[in-house]
Amino acid sequence: MAHQIAAERVVIFQRYYDELVRFLTAKLRSRDQAMDVAQETFLRVLAVNPSDSILRPRAFLYKTAINLTVDLFRKRRRQREESLESAGLQDVLVAPADQESIVETSEQIRLLQEAILELPLRCRQVFLLNKFKERSHAEIAAQLGISVSMVEKHIMKATTHCRERFRDVL
Fold it and tell me: What pTM does this model have?
């Protein structure tokens, strides 16, 4: 019985595979990723309990594929957020539009960039996640696998360092 249901699901998947890949390619803008998501969709469909009948197989395939696509987009967004080190700090900081203060603000941004780049890597990561990505101490601790107390220490160290750098200049 289970083999028969698996065989039926394979036939359903084969029937809609090309259509599903075209749909996913349009969403993901990558045929390779679309084929990967389609393959994962098939695995999820096969993993459904054989006693659970799939009443609308095409809709079930598409819903599963869309859910996987959403998961993929979330993963990409998380990876972009976590790659602060590769993004220039200039992109994170916002300069005011007032023309008179642009030069002054650019210099302040440059000084802040230098100060942040002087920090040890872990301290810099914690500081950027807290100040520019507005992550809580607990979120940062969980993400980086350190204690909340250590997060607080890193933030204090970074803040003190940046203040000292600005005090020396201003």
Answer: 0.47
Q: What is the pLDDT of residues 7-18, one digit of tens each?
A: 787 888 888 899
Candidates 3.30.1330, 1.10.1740, 1.10.150, 1.10.3470; correct CATH number of 2-82? 1.10.1740
pLDDT tens-digit readout, 78-125: 776 666 555 555 555 554 455 555 666 667 777 888 888 899 999 999
Q: Measuring CA to CA, how many Å separate 48 from each of 13, 69, 147, 160?
A: 13, 19, 39, 55
CATH architecture entry for 92-169? Orthogonal Bundle (1.10)
Domains of the chain, by residue range, sit at 2-82, 92-169
